[in-house]
UniProtKB/TrEMBL annotation:
SUPFAM superfamilies: Periplasmic binding protein-like II. It comes from Pseudomonas salomonii. Belongs to the UPF0065 (bug) family. This is Tricarboxylic transport membrane protein. It comes from the Bacteria. Pfam families: TctC. PANTHER family: TRICARBOXYLATE-BINDING PROTEIN, UPF0065 PROTEIN YFLP.
Length: 248
């Protein structure tokens, strides 16, 4: 959209961490992470590894041991194909197990709803998913989370008992950030206006309530700070993409 209206200060475009992962893999053709003006990050969710409540896997160690013994013995489902965010989460687990991610039995599904259906139906044994998508099934007792890919346990009553991967000895953090950007030729004045507006919005109690309703966690960042964050994330994703054979 911004390619057609690069100077339009009234055109905001939504992005997520998936957009940054696609940039790292060159999926936007000639456009790279410097092709837009990164404006604001407004919230985040986190990746997670889910199993049925009666699964023999009680923690990440159990899963990693099973993968080490026989990578093809565990059917893992997630949203998107090879190279997607959910696939990258499984690839990081495979890396921790010391195996090639391509050796995994991976089933590409449409998203959180299909992952839950496949998991509860016994068609897959592990779901690489998003914590927000999983919570209804966690609260019903049908599913468990082996780990959430956050820096620390999430400060929500129903989530405080879900362990992180890091506390289990696996240095895996996978935020799913949401935000907005502007076209590359938007004026400094328009950009500054939007930045100030988002700074005020992100600091408001009204927005915090709205963010919570959308099952997102705090992640507020704007302007140059966000630009630095985005470019570091893309660089880090490129390293992983090369390591996993997704790009040259």
């Amino acid at each position: 959209m911004v390619a057609q209206r690069p100077a339009d200060g009234g055109t905001l475009v939504a992005w997520s961490s998936g957009s940054l992962l696609n940039l790292a893999q060159g999926k936007f053709g000639r456009f790279d992470e410097s092709a837009v003006r990164w404006l604001a990050a407004v919230g985040t969710s986190y990746g997670a590894i889910a199993v049925k409540s009666d699964s023999p896997y009680k923690n990440l160690d159990d899963l990693v041991k099973a993968l080490k013994k026989n990578p093809g013995s565990v059917v893992i489902g997630s949203g998107g194909t090879v190279g997607s965010q959910d696939w990258m989460q499984t690839a990081l687990i495979a890396k921790a197990a010391g195996i090639n991610p391509r050796e995994l039995r991976y089933v590409a599904l449409e998203g959180g709803g299909e992952i839950a259906t496949a998991l509860l139906g016994g068609h897959i044994q592990v779901g690489s998913t998003d914590i927000s998508d999983s919570m209804p099934h966690i609260l019903s007792g049908d599913m468990r989370l082996l780990a959430v890919f956050a820096e620390e346990r999430l400060d929500e009553p129903e989530m405080k008992n879900i362990p992180t991967a890091k506390e289990q000895g696996y240095d895996i953090v996978w935020p799913v950030v949401r935000g907005f950007y502007l076209g590359p030729k938007v004026s400094d004045a328009d950009y500054a206006w939007w930045k100030e507006a988002f700074d005020k919005l992100l600091a408001s109690e009204e927005f915090a309530k709205l963010r919570d309703q959308r099952e997102l966690f705090p992640f507020a960042m704007t302007g140059p700070e966000l630009d630095t964050y985005v470019k570091k994330q893309v660089a880090d994703y490129k390293v992983l993409a090369k390591e996993f054979g997704l790009i040259q």
